[in-house]
Description:
The chain is mainly β. The chain folds into five domains: 71-184, Jelly Rolls; 200-444, Beta Barrel (Thrombin, subunit H); 460-564, Immunoglobulin-like; 568-671; 682-753, Sandwich (Immunoglobulin-like). Helices cover 3% and strands 43% of the residues. Strand 47 and strand 48 (638-639) form a beta hairpin.
Amino acid sequence: xxxxxxxxxxxxxxxxxxxxxxxxxxxxxxxxxxxxxxxxxxxxxxxxxxxxxxxxxxxxxxxxxxxxxxxxxxxxxxxxxxxxxxxxxxxxxxxxxxxxxxxxxxxxxxxxxxxxxxxxxxxxxxxxxxxxxxxxxxxxxxxxxxxxxxxxxxxxxxxxxxxxxxxxxxxxxxxxxxxxxxxxxxxxxxxxxxxxxxxxxxxxxxxxxxxxxxxxxxxxxxxxxxxxxxxxxxxxxxxxxxxxxxxxxxxxxxxxxxxxxxxxxxxxxxxxxxxxxxxxxxxxxxxxxxxxxxxxxxxxxxxxxxxxxxxxxxxxxxxxxxxxxxxxxxxxxxxxxxxxxxxxxxxxxxxxxxxxxxxxxxxxxxxxxxxxxxxxxxxxxxxxxxxxxxxxxxxxxxxxxxxxxxxxxxxxxxxxxxxxxxxxxxxxxxxxxxxxxxxxxxxxxxxxxxxxxxxxxxxxxxxxxxxxxxxxxxxxxxxxxxxxxxxxxxxxxxxxxxxxxxxxxxxxxxxxxxxxxxxxxxxxxxxxxxxxxxxxxxxxxxxxxxxxxxxxxxxxxxxxxxxxxxxxxxxxxxxxxxxxxxxxxxxxxxxxxxxxxxxxxxxxxxxxxxxxxxxxxxxxxxxxxxxxxxxxxxxxxxxxxxxxxxxxxxxxxxxxxxxxxxxxxxxxxxxxxxxxxxxxxxxxxxxxxxxxxxxxxxxxxxxxxxxxxxxxxxxxxxxxxxxxxxxxxxxxxxxxxxxxxxxxxxxxxxxxxx
Length: 754
């Protein structure tokens, strides 16, 4: 099955009224959320955390990120001892309000751990970003844990304010002590750059998983829409991540039993945070909810013999999260036909991977495991540890222990993974919890089962395999290739495909063949005329095997391409990355509109070349290359650079040594000088104020001026000699391009007007 095509899935994600990322809050809001509310004296105590060695942490990423036998790290923990005496009490309109501020310079987000959280009824705790863009809470007496503390979710930014509201006169009933601050140094909660454009792949807010990972709401996950609801991302004390899943029990009563890996255990599971439904709404998105969390758990059983850990969550998973409690198979029988994994690689959005072959029993580092030779679709990474392995019957048979599977660029590296076996866990303490009724069952389906479809008989999926990327130069007909996939159990022998161009009349294509389950055939649609501008093509299944397709999740795909049917120029942009590609972004603008853009890119890719073909209309363009750190692309941390090439392959501009930004202008017609024609036109003074002189003008030259956005700011005029003086006193200040056109060639010179 091909993993390079993706189709939009209408996922059944619910809408929630929660303000931001949070442990099951119980209403209320910080004072600042209500306009006109008295905030009291804004002065509060400030607790500043030490800085971190980000370069040292980054240097370890390439190794540590792929280690699945350890949690994936995204933040630095700092021990603190902040109590009520380390803040400020105010009386605001009859409510006692306590505040303190915590700063972690350079942090993308902050989370807190409370060693003591004891509040009376009527009190509420909030944690909000110092820039007042988001908050979590309110947490009240219902959030108090048996172990006495509380772990919070992440709040974006490098400074947070802790705000406690207490009914007047009940201040002495409060017990509050913060013992840990977590400085998140990786992209958290969607506040940093979410999209990484290298190889056209999108990224999630918690981490940069590899390019070959597949969002769970792609067609590959169409029959796993129930099971995905059991899977959650684990934040361990706020500094590292694993994955796990809710599991059913024989009472089928929604007891929040949660299965993960033994090697993910460590520290106090009471301060873990579990993120449910952190996934894209469709196939190609890069953001997902981060407000559906549960805080805290109790360890019930664990064993290294099969690398399992079974937890009981401290809070019932709210019905609004639409939880699913996955089924399991503890027979350990080697009759498994194929497997599926659902996980959060590198803490990223929820992904799916598929192995079409049978796994087999093996041992790894003393643990009994299921061995996966190679994934056909998707892979796992560090952070996927503890994620469930499902068999063809949609039951959990193990949890991820380790392996070497990973992305190699945009494709699977073809390596193995291994999962601790549920059948061995049955003999090591898990049974009494999964079978509280003592029924002796070794197999149990998921709960609730209503509406859960595990497979379809007739299920053809369509996806766009190839279509023009970027802008198509010169018009003509466009070839679009479509992948037909059989996701059902019945062989497919015929289909009618419909397609529309710009929402016009339906056109059809008949297909005949023989596709067994998971097989794919690629066909080409008839040529689509490339009109000037953008064109949208939709492809969809009309009928399959002479009847209606049973699964509409994957029945349609759309693609949009842009063409310039008039005079165009085939330029190209070449980017050589430095060590910190995540700092690099760029835009190409014309008339104030962005026509091409890219970045940020992956770190640790020094020397990697990214080439972007650019189809440009006649006119002038502004290229802006930015470095978020402010040290350019060369040469302290790698030999990064960028170059613009004209249609003949000649260098228009090259750069790389700058600070925050490099801004350059070029014009397509001006750069289309005949080969071998020397550039002879000169301009002085430069910079200029009132007038400029052009020297070396060809005979019968016509001159016209343009601003930095490529807009004409003067009418064309003729020059009578090889020298010509131009009054520029009335022209706008900034960069001005003078285009000189003769019978033989076109030239462009630019001048900065001050």
